[in-house]
């Protein structure tokens, strides 16, 4: 912050009186139109200078997104943007819109098939003078590379190389493939030991999968990512992993634009609070203590999704949203989960 300049002698002693203004300590002289214009121009310049200072000193948007401290000490913003199903030609604009909105947490994966473009977009931003330490970058190893531990490690190294951002902040096993995921995770521990990744994480792990993993893992995962929203509230999973000290990260918080955004409970809460249904769903996960990955290709919606930290949901609102999860939805999600963990695209 710039130190305030010393006032010139007599500068505070400007007497009011329009064209007849005088300065104490100076020879009394009437101001003509030219001097008045010059004085007004100087005053305007000073005002603009002060305004510019306040703008440069005001907090950036990313300061408004709180972070969670991981077990290993790293800081991860509570909001991330995911790049799943984002066409390669749109990656640059999506990442730029997210960065401009204050997002510094990015969820990448080999399965998304756009990591080279993701890395290029982020590097372009870094080349403008930003610091890599502001960012939290995750990549994930897909099921097709989990059959052999060496293949899992090779896949992760390819992702890190394609991103071109140096060491990533977290590498995850994307799905807990039965009989394969433990050996793959143990192989990925080499990335932490050699400095290629600051931490390891897991994705779509149930409590049972986690317990199986921890019998062999030397470096514990710090994050678990799984689907969680008001219409699929995995309360047992959330409680279990939070109790174990992992950051719980929810994806599909709005069911990718699904029925949760149009159900009466969500829309009525949104209308009462003057918020969008998407903001209500995102806020619900935040108040559960979770990190949230959202997805949007539209800059205006990205900004909307970020602006969820200036309101709260009441206990009654939270209970109403919790009650939206049905046994039918749970059964459908379980079927999808079993397919994906067994390698079905």
Description of the molecule:
This protein has 345 residues and is of the alpha/beta class. It has 12 helices and 10 strands. It has helices at residues 33-57, 88-100, 115-126, 149-163, 181-193, 207-214, 235-243, 264-273, 277-287, 299-306, 315-322, 327-341; strands at residues 67-69, 75-77, 79-82, 105-107, 136-141, 170-173, 200-203, 223-227, 247-251, 291-294. The strands form 2 sheets. The protein has an 8-stranded parallel beta barrel with strand order 3-4-5-6-7-8-9-10, surrounded by 4 helices. It has a two-stranded antiparallel sheet with strand order 1-2. Helix 4 (149-163) packs across helix 5 (181-193). The radius of gyration is 27 Å and the shape is globular. Residues 1-31 and 47-60 have low confidence and may be disordered.
Reconstruct the topology from this structure.
Elements: H1 33-57, E1 67-69, E2 75-77, E3 79-82, H2 88-100, E4 105-107, H3 115-126, E5 136-141, H4 149-163, E6 170-173, H5 181-193, E7 200-203, H6 207-214, E8 223-227, H7 235-243, E9 247-251, H8 264-273, H9 277-287, E10 291-294, H10 299-306, H11 315-322, H12 327-341
Parallel strand pairs: 3-4, 3-10, 4-5, 5-6, 6-7, 7-8, 8-9, 9-10
Antiparallel strand pairs: 1-2
Properties at a glance:
345 residues; alpha/beta; 43% helix; 12% strand; globular
Q: Provide the structure class.
A: alpha/beta
Low-confidence stretches: 1-31, 47-60
Largest sheet: 8 strands, parallel, barrel
User: What's the end-to-end separation, in Å?
Assistant: 53 Å
Helix content: 40-55%
Give the strand order of the largest sheet, numbering strands 1, 2, ... along the chain: 3-4-5-6-7-8-9-10
Whole-number mean pLDDT: 87
The number of distinct helices, counting runs of at least 4 residues, comes to 12
Overall strand count: 10
In angstroms, what is the radius of gyration? 27 Å
């Amino acid at each position: 912050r710039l130190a305030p300049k010393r006032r010139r002698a007599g500068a505070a002693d400007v007497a009011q009186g329009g064209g007849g203004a005088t300065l104490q300590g100076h020879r009394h002289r009437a101001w003509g139109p030219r001097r008045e214009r010059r004085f007004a121009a100087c005053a305007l310049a000073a005002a603009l200078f002060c305004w510019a200072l306040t703008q440069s000193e005001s907090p950036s948007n990313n300061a408004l997104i709180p972070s969670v401290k991981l077990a290993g000490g790293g800081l991860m913003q509570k909001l991330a943007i995911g790049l799943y199903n984002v066409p390669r030609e749109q990656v640059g604009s999506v990442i730029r819109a997210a960065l401009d909105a204050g997002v510094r947490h990015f969820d990448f994966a080999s399965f998304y098939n756009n990591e080279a473009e993701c890395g290029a977009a982020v590097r372009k931003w870094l080349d403008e003078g930003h610091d890599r330490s502001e960012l939290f970058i995750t990549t994930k190893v897909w099921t097709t590379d989990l059959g052999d531990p060496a293949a899992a490690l090779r896949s992760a190294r390819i992702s890190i190389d394609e991103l071109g951002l140096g060491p990533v902040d977290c590498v995850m096993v994307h799905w807990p493939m039965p009989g394969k995921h433990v050996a793959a995770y143990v192989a990925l521990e080499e990335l932490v030991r050699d400095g290629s990744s600051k931490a390891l994480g897991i994705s779509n792990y149930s409590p049972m999968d986690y317990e199986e993993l921890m019998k062999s893992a030397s470096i514990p995962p710090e994050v678990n990512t799984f689907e969680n929203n008001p219409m699929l509230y995995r309360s047992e999973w959330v409680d279990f992993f939070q109790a174990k000290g992992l950051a719980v990260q929810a994806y599909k918080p709005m069911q990718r634009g699904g029925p949760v955004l149009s159900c009466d409970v969500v829309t009525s809460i949104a209308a009462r609070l003057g918020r969008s249904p998407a903001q209500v769903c995102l806020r619900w996960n935040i108040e559960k203590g979770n990190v949230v990955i959202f997805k949007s290709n539209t800059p205006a919606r990205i900004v909307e999704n970020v602006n969820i930290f200036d309101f709260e949901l009441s206990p009654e609102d939270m209970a109403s949203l919790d009650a939206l999860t049905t046994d039918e939805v749970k059964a459908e999600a379980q079927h999808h989960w079993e397919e994906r963990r067994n390698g079905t695209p």
